[in-house]
Amino acid sequence: MISSVVLSAVEIRSLTGYTSATKQLQVLHERGFIRAFRARDGQIILERRHFESVCDGVFSKETRNESSTKQAPNLAIFNTNSP
């Protein structure tokens, strides 16, 4: 059986226990499904691969923050006061 790219409305309702899109999104974000979002039509979208990654412990808030390699920009190159 080929599964859909996104979880169905029934799956999201079952996962969260809510029918309200606002509550569904809140619960999903609290549970680590940070890529869940509300579409223009109001439906909650959660990619199946993201769902599976979070459930497997591969994608979490902790691992996402640890893998970040953000550095402060080097603004010295914009210094016009040359010695």
Describe the structure.
With 83 residues, this protein is mostly helical. It has one domain (1-62). The protein is built from 4 helices and 2 strands. It has helices at 9-16, 21-30, 48-56, 61-66, and strands at residues 37-38, 44-45. It has a two-stranded antiparallel ribbon. A hairpin with a 5-residue loop joins strand 1 and strand 2 (44-45). Helix 1 (9-16) packs across helix 2 (21-30). The termini are far apart.
Largest sheet: 2 strands, antiparallel
How many beta strands in the DSSP annotation?
A: 2
Helix content: 25-40%
Distance between the amino and carboxyl termini: 70 Å
Q: What is the 3D shape?
A: elongated
Q: Which strand-content bin applies to the residues?
A: under 5%
Q: Helix/strand/pairing class, anyone?
A: mainly alpha
Low-confidence stretches: none
Helix/strand order, N-terminal first: HHEEHH
Radius of gyration using CA atoms only: 19 Å
Mean pLDDT: 83
What is the domain total for the residues? 1
Helix count, per DSSP?
4
Strand order of the largest sheet: 1-2
